[in-house]
Design goal:
By secondary structure, the protein is of the alpha+beta class. The chain has two helices and five strands, in the order βββββαα. The strands form two sheets. A three-stranded antiparallel sheet has the order 3-2-4, with no helix packed on it. A hairpin with a 5-residue loop joins β2 and β3.
Length: 167
């Protein structure tokens, strides 16, 4: 997501470890992409070469789901448990509840981070608009002062006696 910069747009490329283009977005302000991965190094690039004058501030988040290593770590506790089947069943229920809470908390953190990014982008737009309104208000005020000075001068010139008096 582009948070700040002229046009709020940027190009995005995502390449697989084999060098194949998986995603190519041209001049987008935001986007969400889901990709099935394989082993290797992926490359992603945010490209702003089409706008050489203005710089951009971007926000991105990389979310990795269904990691196999996490599953193995969760099963390690079972080898230390000894006892009745009832105890194993209760521990399974507790583990399932904990994993459910963990997944929901993780999703909540992701949503809050995304909302923070939206808020930052909107704040940048509001500050830009505030500066623009202040600038044009000052220009308008300056024009009004100049016009009022010219009007006072013109009115004075109307009431001046232009005849030369002989004494």
């Amino acid at each position: 997501q582009v948070l700040d910069g002229a046009g709020l747009d940027v190009d995005f490329h995502l390449l697989s470890p084999k060098g194949e283009t998986l995603v190519f977005d041209e001049r987008k302000s935001d986007g969400v992409h889901t990709v099935e991965t394989e082993d290797g190094d992926y490359m992603f690039c945010f490209d702003n070469t089409f706008s050489t004058i203005s710089e951009k501030v971007i926000f991105f988040e990389l979310i990795l789901d269904n990691m196999e290593e996490d599953r193995e770590d969760q099963e390690d506790w079972k080898k230390y448990v000894t006892g009745t089947d009832l105890l194993d069943m209760k521990l399974e229920d507790i583990l399932e509840s904990i994993n459910s809470v963990k997944a929901r908390l993780s999703k909540s953190v992701q949503i809050q981070t995304l909302l923070r990014a939206f808020e930052a982008r909107d704040r940048n737009i509001q500050e830009s608009n505030f500066d623009r309104v202040n600038f044009w208000s000052m220009v308008n005020l300056g024009v009004m002062v100049v016009v009022s000075a010219v009007q006072v001068y013109m009115l004075k010139s109307l009431f001046e006696d232009k005849r030369k008096s002989r004494t």
